[in-house]
């Protein structure tokens, strides 16, 4: 049996640990099926201010005293996790796709899927569980 879990990140990468918790929980899904009788397939979606987690070259440690989520996101991309990012929110914040984290330097074959919010809603309907961060 397969269980699909969607992790929706709505908060920015600073002043909160929630985005990193979402990323950590999603990565843990890859080992969860070792201990249960279900295959667990995680998907991440970044919406609203959560898209700010996906910017490369962040200096959150320098400015806010917390570790950047960039390396965590690279690990997810390198593990071929499905990663969605809301196109409308990128546009609203004036962020071009070339500013997004990629993990090509780690051998990743996938990158963010920049999609309209409607596609993220379809993913919400498709998944068995949704977790908001």
Gist?
The protein is α/β, with parallel strands linked by helices.
Main pleated sheet: 5 strands, parallel
Helix count, DSSP H or I runs of 4 or more residues: 5
Percent of residues in helices comes to 25-40%
Fraction of residues in β-strands: 15-25%
Q: What are the low-pLDDT stretches, counting only 5+ consecutive residues below 50?
A: none
Instruction: Spell the H/E element sequence.
Output: EHEHHEHEHE
Blueprint (SSEs and pairs):
Blueprint: E1 2-9, H1 18-35, E2 39-46, H2 60-64, H3 70-78, E3 82-86, H4 87-92, E4 113-115, H5 117-126, E5 129-132
Task: Describe it.
- The chain is an alpha/beta fold and 133 residues long.
- The protein has helices spanning 18-35, 60-64, 70-78, 87-92, 117-126; strands at 2-9, 39-46, 82-86, 113-115, 129-132.
- Strands 4-3-2-1-5 form a five-stranded parallel beta sheet, sandwiched between helices.
- Helix 1 (18-35) links the parallel strand 1 (2-9) and strand 2 (39-46).
- The longest helix has 18 residues, at 18-35.
- It is globular.
- The model has no long low-confidence stretch (mean pLDDT 89).
């Amino acid at each position: 049996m397969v269980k699909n879990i969607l992790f929706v990140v709505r908060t920015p990468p600073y002043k909160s640990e929630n985005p990193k918790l979402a990323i950590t929980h999603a990565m843990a899904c890859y080992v969860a099926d070792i201990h249960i009788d279900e295959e667990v397939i995680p998907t991440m979606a970044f919406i609203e201010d959560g898209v700010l987690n996906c910017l490369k070259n962040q200096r959150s440690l320098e400015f806010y005293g917390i570790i950047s989520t960039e390396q965590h996101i690279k690990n997810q991309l390198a593990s071929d996790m499905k990663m969605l990012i809301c196109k409308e929110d990128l546009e609203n914040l004036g962020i071009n796709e070339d500013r997004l984290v990629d993990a090509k330097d780690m051998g990743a074959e996938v990158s963010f899927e920049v999609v309209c919010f409607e596609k993220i809603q379809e993913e919400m309907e498709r998944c068995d569980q949704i977790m908001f961060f």
